[in-house]
Amino acid sequence: MMILNILITGKPGIGKTTVLNRVKEAVEDLSHSVGGVTCLEIRENGRRVGFNIVDVSNDKKGMLAHVKCEGPHVGKYGVNLKDLNEIGVPAIENAVKSSDYIFIDEIAPMELHSKHFCSAVEAAMDSKKPVIAVIHKRSGHPFVSKIKARDDVSIFEVTHENRDFLDEEILEILENLTI
């Protein structure tokens, strides 16, 4: 089976999202359409207090999690299932329909609180479109284990040694796909 789904993993703060964004920018520079989601830190007074979720195709933004948010908790953050389901899920679903490449930042404990998100990720990975996603490294969640075990997945671990060129390795794989 051809590798269509690329998972980027690694320790917290190692540069997974940076690698993902470099790949996304290179794909866009080649005039391919991109869709999916990215998560951005919300900072107040120099401290991280939450995360926004952003549809990469139209920049529609919502709050994924915040220290002051009600909802299921992951560490000190409450997960905002409403924005995750109303912005994140449609962003992935629309990417399956209308984008050349699907980017997902990230498949991790916060996002896994939404069954709709998990279904959208699975549908994206089942599509004929390449999915490039950041995935939680040490999660024991059954969904993460299932995704990592797929035959059509290649997993790249970001390290201090490879983080400056890992995007080029991933792009080489993507170049061999016909979109």
Automatic annotation (TrEMBL):
The keyword Nucleotide-binding applies. It catalyses: a ribonucleoside 5'-triphosphate + H2O = a ribonucleoside 5'-diphosphate + phosphate + H(+). The keyword Amino-acid biosynthesis does not apply. InterPro entries: Nuc-triphosphatase_THEP1, P-loop_NTPase. Pfam families: NTPase_1 (PF03266). Keywords: ATP-binding, Hydrolase, Nucleotide-binding. GO terms for molecular function: ATP binding; ribonucleoside triphosphate phosphatase activity. Its EC number is 3.6.1.15. ATP binds at G10, K11, P12, G13, I14, G15, K16, T17. Has nucleotide phosphatase activity towards ATP, GTP, CTP, TTP and UTP. May hydrolyze nucleoside diphosphates with lower efficiency. Belongs to the THEP1 NTPase family. This is Nucleoside-triphosphatase MSWAN_0387. It comes from Methanobacterium paludis (strain DSM 25820 / JCM 18151 / SWAN1).
